[in-house]
Design the sequence.
């Protein structure tokens, strides 16, 4: 056998270990950003880039605000905010027949964002002392001067049309960002009988 030299054992290449780079904090990066807007964003500015915080649904106390509206036969306007959800027409906020609409609500010392409302009709007459026909309940918000009529303000929630009954109705806001000085419940009837509201429980977003 003829002797010969074997080639050297090959060396297996291994990649170098990656360098450990300390992640810069947003505080470190912000001063070096070219655009002021980006620097503001990196620093966590509240303008435009703040993470939206969840609002809390909070029941508005009956005694808060000043009652407004025309459901005030015999000085009964405040009965819509006395905490009693089951009342006869005479013990509710109500008005005499002769009109196809009425309203009751509150003026706030500081504007509030409306969330939802639970509306209770008189337990012996329904919303219109009729028990038949169609009714619509609208929640309206207004800023500035107080509403002067049932239709004075922006609709921010509605039941749509329903057959009159003594059932409780819930209205949810379609605008959860605007704060309003005044909230009112507008009651629209297909008849001109008495109109009443036993109680209004409403929630705000804070």
Sequence:
């Amino acid at each position: 056998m003829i002797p010969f030299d074997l080639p050297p054992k090959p060396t297996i290449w291994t990649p170098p270990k990656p360098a450990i780079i300390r992640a810069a904090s947003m505080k470190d990066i912000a001063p070096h950003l070219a655009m002021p807007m980006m620097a503001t964003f990196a620093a966590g500015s509240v303008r435009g880039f703040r993470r939206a915080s969840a609002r809390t649904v909070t029941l508005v106390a009956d005694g808060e605000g000043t009652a407004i509206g025309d459901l005030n036969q015999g000085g009964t306007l405040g009965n819509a905010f006395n905490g009693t959800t089951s009342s006869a027409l005479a013990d509710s906020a109500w008005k005499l027949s002769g009109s196809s609409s009425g309203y009751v609500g509150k003026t706030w010392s500081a504007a509030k964002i409306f969330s939802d409302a639970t509306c209770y009709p008189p337990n012996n007459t329904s919303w219109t002392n009729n028990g038949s026909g169609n009714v619509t309940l609208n929640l309206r918000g207004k800023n500035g001067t107080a509403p002067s009529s049932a239709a004075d303000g922006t609709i921010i929630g509605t039941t749509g049309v329903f057959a009159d009954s003594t059932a409780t109705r819930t209205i949810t806001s379609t605008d959860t960002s605007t704060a309003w000085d005044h909230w009112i419940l507008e009651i629209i009837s297909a008849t001109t009988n008495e109109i009443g509201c036993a109680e209004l429980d409403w929630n705000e977003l804070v």
